[in-house]
Amino acid sequence: MAKRFGGKFSPDGQAATGPRDTVHSDRQIAVSGGRVKLLYVPAIVLAATALNDGPVTLVTALVGAATLTLAAWLLQEGLKAEAAFNARKIAKRPALPRKMLATVLTGVGVTIAAYTGDSGVIGSVLYGVAAAGLHTATFGVDPMSDKRMEGIDAFQQDRVAKVVDEAEAHLEVMKSQIEAVSDRRLSDRVEDFQIIARRMIRTVEEDPRDLSGARKFLSVYLMGARDATIKFVDLYTRKKDADVRSDYEALLDDLEQNFAARTDKMLLDDRSDMDIEIKVLRDRLQREGVSMKTKGNE
Known about the structure:
By secondary structure, the protein is mainly α. Helices cover 72% and strands 0% of the residues. It has nine helices and no strands.
C-alpha cells in the first residue's frame, strides 16, 4: 500500500513531527516479507505433488509441508522482531530465536521433502543441511545480545527496555485494530499519532533519565489509547457512526498534543542540563587558565 507523503511541503502543509527513524522500519519489513512469502510456495508444491503417490508418501509430504510452512512463518516473525530491535537504541534480544528455529525447521522440512522423492536417507539429510546453510546465509541469525548504551547503568536500561516493549506492543495493537476498518484516512491518522509517540520513545531511549516523566504517557495513556481504539473499531464496524468517528479523532488530537508537548519539554530540559554542564565546564577551564575564545572572537 502506498504511503501518504508528509512534511512541511506536503499538500496538507503540516511539518514533520519527528525524525524519520521514529517510523518502525516498515519499508524494511515489507521488503523482507516479500522474500519470505516465496518460502510458502515449496510447501504448497510438496503437498500438491504427493496427492497421487499413496497414503504413506502423502502423509509424509504433508508433515514436510507443515514444517516448511511453520519455518516460513517463524522467519517472518523473526524479521519483524529484528527490524524492531535495530530501530531502537536500547533493546533486549528476542526471547525466542525465531530465525534460528526457522533455519532448523527449513532443514528438517527439506529433508522430509527430499525423502519423499526417493533421495535416500543420506541424500535427504545432505539436502536438508544445504538448505539450512543457505537459509542462514540469506537471512542471518537473531540478535544474540541486548543493545545497550554506554555510560548508563544496566538497571536503568532494563527499566527503559521494559517500558518501551510495552509501549510498542500497545502501538502495534492500535495499528492492527485500525487496519480492520479499511479506512485510509483513519489508518493515516493513527500512523501520525504513532510517529509522535515513537518520538517520545526514542527520546527516552537516548536519555533514560526522562523515563520518570514519560512513564505515564508510555504506559497508562498508550494503554488507554489502545483500549479506545479497540472499542472504536468494534462500534464503527457495526455502524458507521460519524459522531463515534469524530470522538475518536478528537481523542487522537488530544493525545498527539499532549505527547508532543511532553516530548518537547523533555528535550528542552535536556538542553538546559547541557547548557548548565557547558557553563560549569567553561568556568572550570577558565580557572585553569585555558582560553575558551573561538576564532570568530579573536
